[in-house]
Each structure stands twice: as C-alpha cells, then as structure tokens.
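Example for tutorial group B:
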C-alpha cells in the first residue's frame, strides 16, 4: 500500500489531500478515515489505498502510521532560537561559573541558582 504525508485536512469540510511518497497529491475524503479518527494534521504519516474517482486519484482504507505531534512539540521553540539560548548559556557558564571552579570553589548561591534555572530551561526544550 502507498504511504504519504497529509498535506492538509479540514474536518469541517470533510476532506483534504495527502502527498504520496511516490509523488503527486491524492484526494482524502472523510469516508476513508479509520473509525474513531475525526481529524488529521498536516505532516502526519498515513498508509492508504488508491482508487480512481471521478476527479482523479482518491485515498481509501487509510491507516494512521504516526500520532499527531504532542502539544509540547507544537509549542517547542524553533531550532535557531534554541541555538541562541545554548550560545548564551555557554557564555554565562564561561563568565560566571568556570572562573570560580578553576580557583577550587563553587559560585555563590545566587549565581548558582540563576545558572541552574538557565540550564534547566535549555534541558526542558531539548527533552521534548
């Protein structure tokens, strides 16, 4: 069976299109969705059969291959923005933490807490 990614799907209209991995767009009617599935998101991978309809290729017997992205993934910062955060974190570590550690002591409590918050924020962005 062919596979592809949902190009777009409008649940209120009851149809959309899928871009086949073999090339070309295929009409995706609501009636071809598996039971219990009411909506699809752009980019979702699906497997489907193809039949010729009045207006061209039409998907049928759709099987969803991957779940839609989680809310956390949708809220994730863009990679270029995260790159800036990591760069800033490195600068802070080099300026505020490394000098004290080289002298054999830990940074003061206030600095440690701020740096820890920054490191945790970057880690949360990477975990999603």
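The residue assignment follows.
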């Amino acid at each position: 069976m062919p596979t592809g990614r949902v190009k777009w799907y409008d649940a209120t209209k009851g149809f959309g299109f899928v871009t086949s991995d073999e090339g070309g767009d295929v009409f995706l009617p609501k009636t071809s969705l598996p039971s219990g599935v009411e909506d699809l998101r752009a980019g979702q991978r699906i497997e489907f059969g193809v039949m010729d309809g009045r207006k061209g290729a039409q998907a049928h017997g759709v099987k969803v291959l991957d779940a839609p992205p989680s809310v956390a993934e949708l809220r994730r910062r863009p990679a270029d923005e995260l790159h800036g955060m990591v760069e800033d974190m490195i600068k802070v570590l080099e300026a505020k933490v490394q000098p004290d550690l080289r002298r054999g002591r830990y940074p003061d409590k206030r600095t440690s807490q701020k740096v820890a918050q920054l490191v945790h924020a970057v880690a949360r962005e990477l975990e999603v």
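The mean pLDDT is 88. Compare this with the pattern of hydrophobic and polar residues in the output above.
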